[in-house]
Design goal:
alpha/beta, Aspartate Aminotransferase, domain 1, Aspartate Aminotransferase, domain 2, three-stranded antiparallel β-sheet
Length: 399
């Protein structure tokens, strides 16, 4: 049986060059980066080299990069850190209805503590509208947090335009207003320039771009004040206490370097295969629709709704054929509810249950996509024959 992995939005294979870059810091240069002896200084230099590599990918300064355990911690530090540092100036936060759970849960917690939260709609195309951001802003707003690319449908949000709006408000005297974007699904896949976007904080993680799990980064624009959420030592310039994982940080640095160098060719490769996959699915399977905007999205993601069939049944059936896909965010796995992303773009609950995400990477091949195309139609047809929703549709037509 063939094995085809199309769940790269959940995690990617660690690149061989990344593994090679990490290995010395497990077995040879294993010192603590806070130690002053040679072992410690070698480890510290590895961290600073990685900080420079990540900064180059984002067009930031190395001192603006904070290393953490991943995207979730990065989102938490950005949102809660701004809220704690600036709550005396305002207690209003703006986000979107289909953010990653790390953002939504952080905002929900602050709302429970007395902050006011505005959740922006994203409409059928899955894109926040600037007019809604403008209408939601008040003098009490201290943070706008909107993701750069959605993790389930891949749509790209107008962060540069939101950044310009935030800059206008700051120029008019609202200096406590900040913009954060969760760019976990965008960095390394599309150009991400923190200066062009106009963001104050940006979340990034390694394992979405062929780096290791367990390490991420937060860009904090120079001069932005945040309150640490992890207390202990004075690591990461007092922003995140705890002994740094030197091997993982070396890994995120190398993954960032490779992503910067090979971004264009990777994007072309993924886009071509994704478009081929989409065209074949739409041609071969009836009652299928694409979720989210067709153009304004990252190159490797395709999300489909298959009418009259359960997405979970589709996922399991494909897995039995060696094909890995997902019904939504890996961070929401185990939920029996339809994806909050699909509900936010207006899909009925029944339709939300029938959606699948196919996410490609630089390693995906044409042969793998052909295998999916050959395998999927028969599975959909089989499941529709036994689906109660198909029977309901047949009965309605008979009437």
């Amino acid at each position: 049986m063939r094995r085809v992995y199309l769940d790269n939005s959940a995690s990617t294979r660690v690149d061989d060059e990344v593994v090679e870059a990490m290995l010395p810091y497990f077995t040879e240069q294993y010192g603590n980066a806070s130690s002053t002896h040679q072992w410690g200084q070698h480890a510290k230099q590895a961290i600073e080299d990685a900080r420079a590599q990540v900064a180059r990918l984002l067009n930031a300064q190395p001192t603006e990069i904070v290393f953490l355990s991943g995207g979730t911690e990065s989102d938490n530090l950005a949102i809660k850190g701004i809220a704690a540092a600036h709550c005396s100036r305002g207690r209003h936060i703006i986000t979107s209805a289909f953010e990653h759970p790390a953002v939504l849960a952080s905002c929900d917690q602050l709302e429970a503590q007395g902050f006011t939260l505005t959740r922006l709609p994203v409409y059928r195309e899955g894109i926040v509208r600037l007019k809604d951001v403008r209408a939601a802003l008040t003098d009490e707003t201290i943070l706008v947090t909107v993701m750069l690319a959605n993790n389930e449908i891949g749509t790209i949000q107008p962060i540069a335009e939101i950044g310009a709006l935030v800059a206008e408000r700051r120029a008019a005297g609202q200096r406590h207003l900040h913009l954060h974007t969760d760019a976990v699904q965008a960095v390394g896949k599309i150009p991400v320039d923190v200066k062009q976007l106009g963001v104050d904080l940006l979340t990034f993680t390694a394992h979405k771009i062929h780096g290791p799990k367990g390490v991420g980064a937060l860009y904090v624009r120079r001069g932005v004040r945040i309150t640490s959420q992890m207390h202990g030592g004075r690591h990461e310039r007092d922003r995140r206490a705890g002994t740094e994982s030197v091997p993982l940080i070396a890994g995120i640095g190398k993954a960032a370097e490779l992503a910067r160098v090979h971004m264009d060719e990777r994007a072309v490769h993924m886009r071509q295969l994704r478009d081929y996959l989409e065209a074949q699915i739409i041609e071969r399977i009836p009652d299928v629709s694409r979720n989210g905007d067709a153009e304004q999205r990252v190159p490797g993601v395709a999300n489909f709704n298959f009418d009259f069939v359960e997405g979970e049944g589709l996922q399991i059936s494909l897995d039995l054929k060696g094909i890995a896909v997902s019904t939504g965010s890996a961070c929401s796995s185990g939920s029996t509810e339809p994806s909050h992303v699909l509900l936010a773009i207006g899909l009925p609950r029944d339709s939300g249950h029938g959606s699948l995400r196919f996410s490609l990477s630089k390693d995906t091949t044409r042969e793998e996509i052909d295998y999916v195309i050959e395998t999927l139609p028969a599975i959909v047809e089989k499941l529709r024959k036994i689906s109660p929703r198909t029977k309901k549709k047949t009965a309605e037509h008979a009437e």
